[in-house]
Amino acid sequence: MLTARIKAIAGHLPEGRLTNDALAARFPDWSADKILDKTGIAERRIAADGETSLDLAEGAAKALLAQEGLNPGEIDFLLLCTQTPDYVLPTSACLLQARLGLPTSAGALDFNLGCSGFVYGLSLAKALIESGQAKRVLLVTADTYSKLLAPDDQGVRTLFGDGAAATLVEAVEAQAPLIDPVVFGTDGLGGERLIVKRGGFREPSAGADMVLEMDGPGVMAFTLGHVPKAIEQLLARTGRTMDEHDLFVFHQANGFILDRLRKKLAIPPERFVIDMREVGNTVSSTIPLALAPLLSQGAGAPRRVMLVGFGVGLSWAAASVVI
């Protein structure tokens, strides 16, 4: 049977760094060690003035093409997940198609999702491939949340970093699906728990007051309530068990939330991937950036990995994949 698989991932991070020492100097009530203990993050990568999500997306995609020795002409479809596009229109995906030199016969679209976006994107890529509409899909995630953070909001400034990842999803012959059917969830009633109120057409803005507002306790309650249920639904839909999964890669929201989830779900620490210490919460790119080192470890026995994205929307998605 023809099925979709994750072939490769490449990340791209901006040069700028925001360390805990720098944050502690601005927020004296939180020491560098306290920030690390609360968040699991030591530093975040920060885009420069004038450096956008599109620039980071281009860097990640070019790194992936070079890594895999692929000609841009071999890409049939480009999916770009971002909540910080360069323009209202045209879509950043169309501009990225030109920057990468992808063929004009390739499809290209943006989709606006945050923390669940990578898993949603995998499902879209899977559908394109397994319906016969594409053989190779380039899934790119890129965000520059640092440009939305109020300078004095220590709750969000300690968490978010900028970054991008490019994932190659391709068609292969296999006896069973390598990306199982995905479970989704949406609760728009919780939209204001993570929101940038100004800047759209509902509340226009010149840009200076486009600020991310986060209800931390509300997001925590949502996560601890909905992620376990999503996993139950995924296991029921796929007929798999937790023990069949070698690794668990969840959205790297922050260390405290991940530790609470791991303990609540009784996942052994050695099977639960945490990889955010040097990059922070990169929103749509946290899962692929954490997956990339696992893919680059070389050939070996296939591993089944559970992926769970959750956050802004409110939105969530869970998948079981073989890498």
Number of domains: 2
Task: Give the uncertain stretches in residue-range form.
Answer: none
**Helix content percent band:** 25-40%
Query: How far is it from the N-terminal to the C-terminal residue, by CA?
Result: 17 Å
Based on CA atoms alone, the radius of gyration comes out at 19 Å
Domain Beta-ketoacyl-[acyl-carrier-protein] synthase III C-terminal: 235-321
InterPro entries: ACP_syn_III_C, ACP_syn_III_N, Thiolase-like
Pfam family, one: ACP_syn_III
Keywords: Acyltransferase, Transferase
Would you give an account of this structure?
The chain folds into 2 domains: 2-173, 3-Layer(aba) Sandwich (Peroxisomal Thiolase, Chain A, domain 1), CATH 3.40.47.10; 183-322, Peroxisomal Thiolase, Chain A, domain 1, CATH 3.40.47.10. Helix content is 32%, strand content 24%. It contains 9 helices and 13 strands. It has helices at 20-26, 32-39, 53-68, 92-100, 117-130, 154-157, 216-238, 255-265, 286-295; strands spanning 2-12, 16-19, 43-46, 77-81, 107-111, 136-143, 163-173, 183-186, 194-196, 212-214, 247-250, 304-311, 315-322. Helix 1 packs across helix 2, helix 3 (53-68) packs across helix 4 and helix 7 (216-238) crosses helix 8 (255-265). It is globular. The model has no long low-confidence stretch (mean pLDDT 96). Keywords: Acyltransferase, Transferase.
